[in-house]
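Before a colleague's protein record goes any further, I have to sign it off. Thanks in advance; the entry in question is below:
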Amino acid sequence: MNAAGRAVGASDPFAHRRGDAVVTALGADGEPLANTEIVVEQTRHDFGFGCIGFDLIDHANGTADESRLAADWLGLFNLTVLPFYWGLFEPKRGEPDTARLQQAARWFRERGVRVKGHPLVWHTVKAAWLDTLPTDEVERIVRERVRREARDFAGLVDEWDAINEVVIMPDFVNEPDGVPNAISRLARQLGRVEMVRLAVDEARASDPGVRLLLNDFDLSADYERLIEQVLDADVTIDAIGVQTHMHQGFRGQQLVELADRFGQFGLPVHFTETTLLSGDLMPADIVDLNDYVVDEWPSTPEGEARQALELEQHYRMLVGHPNVASITYWGITDRGAWLGAPVGLVRADGRRKPGYGALRRLIKNEWWVAPTAVRTDEAGRVAVSGFAGDFRVTAADARGTFALPLGSSTPTVAVG
């Protein structure tokens, strides 16, 4: 009478991810399904196994056929990130790409995937038309932009990177056209904490229940101080985002140290942007990853083998850490990958790399309850153990669902 993932024991490094339940199955008449064979299976993890969904936006809108890539994507992930880079989302003032992104969000949600928007406020890939405006007008328009997106995507987007890379924001200088960056200019005037408050308050004004993250690549003490200042100023953020693009090599134990450091604030830690290469590594002396430009950056057999091993280590470390709530991989495919790097889990031609299989074995095998036939007792009960998440019960042609929370529980599921 047991449907279980791997047995839980004192040495289980993932015990904090698991639930144990005695589930009572009821028939259509409300009576227990006594001594009945049922099938129990998991349908979703509570933990966020994420990946950007940029490559599937056209597919979701019916303007491209990416069925193979979509199947691979859905075979691993339950959390997607959609792009709201202002300069691409609204390159011409007053003409945002709302409808296309709404349809993409609906497509993912219809398939049981949570949706995150990235980002609401950022000084990079911002709207160029904003730069020539006076700072007071910039502030008004930024506030309107945040409220608009939070409103238009309420019920579709579950969480946002409310503001991205605030540590460097006031100091950012990149003016190829000679016009000062409007967002950085505003950040210098308001200060970092007030920029965070702006993004958070305006988003909550439109969607009070949305989850909001502070996200950064600067993982120094400066980011810790900013978080402290934001919390001391009573700005309510829901989680802390930590970027870990590993173009220069796997960070290993440093990942655990990051989860420790940024978990000290009592908020969930989200590893928001993760990449591991399946080709040559970027030279260690490159400070800004964007400065490394090569004609081609191929995936190699040796690199793919290394990537598969490192992906498994990466996910085991972070899923095994109680402070971590999600991991988002920054690109399932090499096609169009950030900086042209071979970071994908499938090659540009669509063939899976070994890393895809390595992750699949963890997420949908070791950490998953596959369809399992069990027989209820005389009271219609069956024991279920596994990673917390959503489950389905099937008896003959009838189905029902229940949630398996962390710890012990006694859910009842109507099968009919």
User: Anything to note?
Assistant: The first strand starts at residue 2 and ends at 4. The chain has two domains: 2-36+376-414, 47-366.
